[in-house]
């Protein structure tokens, strides 16, 4: 079974489409007439929309802030034998771009691209999933996270037990 043969010949949709087309035509004529009479502001709506939507305050996790402190920011022009483009946004690097180079895997990304990745509480390289925090800094990173959580004495006891 399929659609009825006379489906396209229904009166209601055809009349509705013709009415809407006619109203659109009338609107274009009136709009052209007002522009000719130099009254284009008369057709503008009373609502003024903002240029950009208001931004909500952004809250970052403490781990994201710590990772940003650990990873250095350098100019692209200071690198030796860099890749052509960022693997996150796929834009080519320019000499004045601020970039972050991961210390474990040596991958390079735009600063804003990697920061956005880290803001989603990701702690691995977006390309190869190697941990962003180097192993030699991991203990300091964990201590600062515990201290930020407000329970440094618990972490201190844990580290003494782990050392035994």
TrEMBL record:
Keywords: Metal-binding, Zinc, Zinc-finger. Signal peptide: none annotated. The keyword Aminoacyl-tRNA synthetase does not apply. The keyword rRNA processing does not apply. Residues 86-129 form the RING-type domain. This is RING-type domain-containing protein. InterPro entries: Znf_RING (IPR001841), Znf_RING-CH (IPR011016), Znf_RING/FYVE/PHD (IPR013083). It comes from Hevea brasiliensis (Para rubber tree).
